Amino acid sequence: MAAQWWVLNAGYVGDRVASTVALLRDGDTTVVVDPGMVADRQQILGPMADLGVDPDDVTDVIFSHHHPDHTINAALFRNARYHDHWAYYVDDQWVSRDAEGFALSDAIRLIRTPGHTAEDITTLVDTADGLVALTHAWWHAEGPPEDPFATDGAALAASRARVLALNPVLIVPGHGPAFAPDPTTPR
């Protein structure tokens, strides 16, 4: 099985901040990853409409971690399950489960990748072109080499090594466009 994916908003960090927001589709599963801060909600909703996806069609929302710049627009998706590191949530239900290895579909699964926060997770997507990793282990292609806000630098290095060992064809970082990892990718 192969899923499809699109970056709805390539994030950035500097004087202003926006998260990289992605849309994933695998059969009946439609996922938004990190619906966080953007300059205008149309930067999320417009590309979705162009793809023929209504916000009410989104089945799942994944938070790489709980910082507001990655979660603030979650309420746009009224029918979704919301996933984090230790549970998923639907209306007033809190369903405990570990993110490690949790599969949302045949081609979309979660793993734990702490470092930026203790609760970080990475979304792994099997696509026709290979594995795509959506993760905050990198802010953008350049890293930064040392995350100034990391709660655990050693854990972050281990998480980066774990993701790279999976040989993803692309990494979709927390605040930038997708990039192909290479020897210059910060470890």
From TrEMBL:
SMART domains named among the record's database cross-references: Lactamase_B (SM00849)
Residues annotated as domain Metallo-beta-lactamase: 18-175
Gene Ontology cellular-component annotations: cytosol
Subunit architecture: Homodimer.
Chemical reaction(s) catalysed: a ribonucleotidyl-ribonucleotide-RNA + H2O = a 3'-end ribonucleotide-RNA + a 5'-end 5'-phospho-ribonucleoside-RNA + H(+)
Described function: Endoribonuclease that catalyzes the hydrolysis of histone-coding pre-mRNA 3'-end. Involved in histone pre-mRNA processing during the S-phase of the cell cycle, which is required for entering/progressing through S-phase. Cleaves histone pre-mRNA at a major and a minor cleavage site after the 5'-ACCCA-3' and the 5'-ACCCACA-3' sequence, respectively, and located downstream of the stem-loop. May require the presence of the HDE element located at the histone pre-RNA 3'-end to avoid non-specific cleavage.
Name used for this protein in its record: Metallo-beta-lactamase domain-containing protein 1
Location relative to the cell: Cytoplasm, Cytosol
